Amino acid sequence: MLNEGDWVLIRYGDRSYLRRLEKGGSLNVRRDTLRFSEVIGKPEGIRIGKFEVFRPALEDLILLGFRRKTQIIYPKDAFYIAFKLGIGRNSRVLEFGTGSGALCAVLSELAGEVHTYEVVEEFHRLAVSNMKRYGLGENVVFHLGDFGEAEVEEALFDCAFVDVRDPLPYLEKLHRVLRDSAPLGFLLPTANQVVELLKELKPLFGGVEVLEILHRHYKTLPERFRPEDTMIGHTAYLVFCRKVTAPDK
Ligand SMILES: C[S@@+](CC[C@H](N)C(=O)[O-])C[C@H]1O[C@@H](n2cnc3c(N)ncnc32)[C@H](O)[C@@H]1O
């Protein structure tokens, strides 16, 4: 049932809108109007004229609802990251930097607990407000500060993900705060950043993999089923590895 105050995903052809249902509210697209009073009290997943109204998924909240002041990690990458980090209901996850909170929202939905660090106060506040606005992130501890300077207990985390321009200064600390064998991931936009990271990872982390995820969307008209004309060629490289320790240490 759709209630007043709920966030909804409204589809009109191939357009998508995220709106909050308020009694006097409406959405106008081309010459059509959807009055929210017609929707409130109706079942979820309803078609009214050319409009379809659904309960939004996490992907809709992030892509249509989160305000962004930093580059974000897109859901296509975020869910695979969570899979590679082996995140489950009991995982305690470390993330930095928080940025706009897009990856953090995904980690939070899947993990037991997330600790995220952001050094810029404006971005820290933005991530907190993005999450609170949609009722997300109750299991997230938002730290305002530089991860490099934070006091963190040894072997506290089951996995970690790092999305900062230069991750090299943090490798030893990451090794220290991760439990043995814990998965660790990085997102890096350019190939030369990946090469620099690969040179430094070996002594502390093994099982290294580098990949990127390409998405190709298709037109959904049955009589003209074929790929969309344009696609995003590159978002970022993903680097995954696991904490290793030599037996004599
Ligand atoms: C590209 S953004 C992260 C975006 C985020 N993954 C998302 O999906 O919304 C990188 C962020 O890392 C922050 N940052 C850089 N170095 C940091 C550090 N040492 N500790 C904490 N945050 C840091 C930056 O201020 C910036 O907001």
Automatic annotation (TrEMBL):
Keywords, in A-Z order: Methyltransferase, S-adenosyl-L-methionine, Transferase, tRNA processing
Pfam family, one: GCD14
Entry's EC annotation: 2.1.1.220
PROSITE patterns linked: SAM_TRM61 (PS51620)
MF GO annotations: tRNA (adenine(58)-N1)-methyltransferase activity
GO CC terms: tRNA (m1A) methyltransferase complex
Any one GO biological process: tRNA methylation
Catalytic activity as recorded in UniProt: adenosine(58) in tRNA + S-adenosyl-L-methionine = N(1)-methyladenosine(58) in tRNA + S-adenosyl-L-homocysteine + H(+)
InterPro entries recorded: SAM-dependent_MTases_sf (IPR029063), TRM61_C (IPR049470), tRNA_MeTrfase_Gcd14 (IPR014816)
Domain tRNA (adenine(58)-N(1))-methyltransferase catalytic subunit TRM61 C-terminal stretches: 65-220
Top-level EC class as recorded in UniProt: transferase
Function text: Catalyzes the S-adenosyl-L-methionine-dependent formation of N(1)-methyladenine at position 58 (m1A58) in tRNA.
Assembly, per entry: Homotetramer composed of a dimer of dimers.
Family: Belongs to the class I-like SAM-binding methyltransferase superfamily. TRM61 family.
Protein name: tRNA (adenine(58)-N(1))-methyltransferase TrmI
Organism: Aquifex aeolicus
Taxonomy of the source species: Bacteria, Pseudomonadati, Aquificota, Aquificia, Aquificales
